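Hi U.,

Before I forget, here's the chain from the pilot set. I'm dumping it here mostly so it's searchable later in email.
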Amino acid sequence: MSKTRIALVTLALGASVAFAGSAFAEKMKATLDGKSENPPTTSAGKGEADIDYDAATKKLTWKLTYSGLTGPATAAHFHGPAEVGKNAGVAVAIPGVTSNPVEGSATLTDAQAADLEAGKYYVNIHTAANPGGEIRGQVTK
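Structure:
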């Protein structure tokens, strides 16, 4: 094999590896409802967060949809670290919650990445009637 051909094969292989990083993003999900809040709410609201996480870059990307809330969404966040039924502080804000769906991304710290991968994050959406959170769902793989 010629040096030129070896160089081209090496370059092509390197490029495919470089571009494959985002192709291996881990798929996660959160299904939100009132009974998952702590304390639970009687809201008929529902929501779903489709989440991609790239461990190599620690980039978290989401698409959050919701319906049936008691009023307009006022805020949304990823909270953690917390197991199901436990509360925790805001880990990552979800801006633009008044539009539906809500799409965004953030780069996590090492500690945040470890908590996310350990299943210790949840998503919740707040409203005026439920300022502590109206619907919530644990992030799962």
